[in-house]
Design goal:
Length: 148
């Protein structure tokens, strides 16, 4: 794998600049620069995951209870309203897609809506009412007794 970059003056991420001994982050001498050790990066990432896993393990009873409650409500015909920002928006949209679609085997679809995914509603509500009303207004519109 070549470490050469086609554009000599493209700013490089900090790890590349530090490894080269250059502080500028420009493309000078790019051919001599190399990426950080991939195995070390994976090891560091795995070490950083441990506290999150321990936190989840400590909360496993509560997480299971929430999952059972959501399943009970969906099976009773209720709806899940989900929302997120940035990466959380992608996770919320994936969750609702799996609930409406097929996650694991054939089953009836569940009612689940990602409130952030309707760009026309998001932009119109934010424009007309302000961002602070974005989700509140949608919950009032889509929420029904039993909605999660």
């Amino acid at each position: 794998m070549s470490t050469e970059l086609p554009l000599a003056n493209v700013p490089l991420p900090a790890p590349f600049a530090r490894r080269s001994g250059k502080a500028t982050g420009t493309g000078e001498g790019v051919a001599a620069w190399s990426a950080p050790d991939p195995a070390a990066a994976v090891e560091a990432h795995l070490r950083n995951i441990v506290p999150a896993l321990e936190s989840l393990r400590a909360q496993s009873l509560q997480l299971a209870a929430w999952g059972e409650e959501l399943a009970r409500r969906l099976l009773a015909g209720n709806r899940l309203l989900a929302a997120g920002n940035g990466g959380s928006a992608a996770e919320a949209q994936h969750l609702t897609a799996e609930l409406v679609g097929r996650f694991d085997g054939e089953r009836a679809p569940f009612s689940a809506i990602s409130l952030h995914a309707d760009t026309s509603a998001v932009t119109a509500i934010a424009n007309d009412y302000g961002f602070e009303e974005l989700y509140a207004r949608q919950v009032r519109a889509h929420g029904r007794p039993g909605t999660s």
